[in-house]
């Protein structure tokens, strides 16, 4: 089954709501499982729970089928997201447009690869879709179209 991963802020920001709405639409369109991911930074001293994340999402969007809520702790948001995407072998990653430029910088630092599209194709085998706060989505990179093999 196809897996869509969407990193969000907590509490949900306007941009996170737009990104999550697009991820829900894509998961529904592709009959996919959805993972809602929040990265809790060690240095912030906050402790977000899966239950709190789930309640916040359900307040905005209602109960969602085939959804997994994940809270990971880390020092760098982008690195923690990449780790989760790779570990879960996500087919599609839906991120905010601001997050995409941070990903580029992080990937350059971590892997000395200035081309995020090549990195994602070679390392993650995932489609990355960016979403602006106004809800406009753009496909950033696509490895296999984010679909299961026949």
UniProtKB/TrEMBL annotation:
Species this chain originates from: Halobaculum litoreum
CDD domains in UniProt: USP-like (cd00293)
UspA domain span: 4-106
Entry's transmembrane regions: none
Protein's recorded name: Universal stress protein
Superkingdom of the organism of origin: Archaea
Pfam family, any one: Usp
């Amino acid at each position: 089954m196809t897996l869509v991963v969407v990193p969000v802020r907590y509490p949900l920001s306007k941009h996170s709501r737009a990104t999550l709405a697009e991820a829900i639409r894509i998961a529904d369109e592709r009959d996919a499982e959805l993972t809602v991911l929040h990265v809790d930074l060690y240095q912030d001293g906050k402790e977000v729970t899966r239950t709190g994340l789930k309640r916040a999402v359900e307040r905005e969007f209602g109960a969602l089928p085939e959804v997994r809520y994940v809270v990971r702790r880390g020092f760098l948001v982008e690195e923690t997201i990449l780790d989760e995407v790779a570990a879960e072998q996500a087919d599609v990653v839906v991120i905010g447009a601001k997050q995409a430029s941070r990903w580029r910088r992080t990937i350059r630092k971590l892997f000395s690869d200035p081309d995020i599209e090549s990195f994602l194709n070679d390392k993650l085998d995932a489609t990355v879709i960016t979403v602006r706060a106004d809800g406009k989505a753009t496909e950033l990179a696509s490895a296999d179209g984010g679909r299961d093999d026949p």
